[in-house]
Design brief:
single chain; about 325 residues; alpha/beta; 2 domains; ten-stranded mixed β-sheet; two-stranded antiparallel sheet; binds iron/sulfur cluster
Length: about 325
């Protein structure tokens, strides 16, 4: 096997070997990433106004190479300046993709009150998407996609609800059979997916469901849909498929005055523990934090986050993830 040439400079895995198919606030584009982790982050284009056309891969890598050269020359790609993902290391000088974000769809079967789609529900529920399967299949056939190393690379979904994409199972099958082991799926949990279940059972998939409640009434107030029992049932089915206890992630976004009681949190923790859900995530509603971020942190909310930290240790969860917004309140 020929040795891979590497070069040391500041870059990031998305700039080097990632791609994001997006159809959101910036339109329908192919980009380096979807992370708003820098002032211009999530908006560095490869192809603008893209709607599923056949991709010229030489052109694709030519554009990516130009970004790479900016980094190699000691400068920073404009949209990447200040990004937290930039790091100095030896980067392989090869053209391949090992990280993909599917963000090319916005339709969802849920109606979370905090979702970005709430600002124009009709638009996001009807926004036209395109078939991505032929593109991904071609990437596999041409060996453009390569399985990332354990700590690097992976497949993620965003936008709307992945399980209602007509191509979802076919796509999953491609990644599962090609040995991808880091497939992260955020889901409303309303539609049960056999391919997610299969990926969980082999340890290749992690599903993240933000249930945000532990009662039908609270769920309904947040999600504007009466599907609490269905989501609980599906969470339990996914959890049962796990080899270990860390492929099903249960998330709780605190929404002040709606689900911010210890009782609701206690019952959520109890549910997760009872059903062997090892990873829990705590977050705070984005629009609430944006509104009050310059004021003294609300003691009740800070105490609730601290309570989750304490209880996660007492109940011995495998891991508690504290999202950046919640961390911000603790500082
Ligand atoms: S914005 Fe950040 S994550 Fe995205 S490509 Fe640039 S450095 Fe990487
Ligand atoms: S499940 Fe996700 S995409 Fe769907 S409404 Fe909720 S936040 Fe939005």
């Amino acid at each position: 096997m020929s040795e891979v040439i590497t070069k040391k400079y500041i870059s990031c895995k998305w700039l080097e070997s990632g791609v994001c198919f997006d159809n959101g606030v910036y339109g329908s584009n192919v980009k380096l990433c979807c992370y708003m982790s820098a002032p211009g982050g999530g908006n560095v284009m490869i192809f603008e106004d893209y709607h599923g056309e056949k991709i010229n891969w030489d052109k694709f890598f030519e554009i990516k190479q130009k970004y790479r050269e900016i980094q190699q020359n000691g400068d920073t790609v404009e949209g990447c300046r200040g990004c937290v993902f930039l790091e100095e290391k030896d980067w392989p000088q090869e053209n391949y993709i090992d990280s993909i974000i599917f963000d090319h769809f916005t339709k969802c079967n849920c109606r979370c009150s905090y979702c970005y789609t709430e600002e124009d529900k009709k638009k996001y529920q009807t926004l036209k998407t395109y078939n991505i399967y032929p593109i991904i299949k071609e990437m596999f056939d041409k060996k453009i996609i390569r399985k990332g190393l354990e700590d690097k690379g992976g497949i993620g979904f965003g936008g709307g609800e992945p399980t209602i994409l007509p191509e979802f199972d076919k796509l999953m099958e491609l990644f599962l059979k090609n040995g991808f082991s880091n497939i992260r799926i955020p889901s409303s949990g309303i539609k049960f997916s056999k391919s997610i279940e299969k990926g969980i059972s082999t340890g290749q998939v992690s599903v993240n469901i933000s249930i945000d409640s532990s009662s039908r009434e609270t769920y309904k107030r947040i999600k504007q849909i009466d599907k609490y029992d269905t989501v609980c049932k599906n969470l339990i089915r996914y959890a049962k498929a796990q080899k270990n206890s860390y492929n099903v992630i249960s998330k709780y976004i605190i929404i002040p005055n709606i689900n911010d009681t210890k009782e609701e949190i206690d019952n959520w923790l109890k549910f997760n523990k009872e059903h062997n859900i090892g990873i829990i995530v705590i977050d705070i509603e984005n629009s609430w934090l944006t509104k009050y971020r310059n004021e003294k942190p609300d003691e009740k909310i800070v105490d609730l986050i601290k309570y989750v930290i304490k209880m996660s240790k007492e109940l011995n969860f495998y891991r508690l993830e504290i999202c950046d917004r919640a961390k911000y309140l603790l500082n």
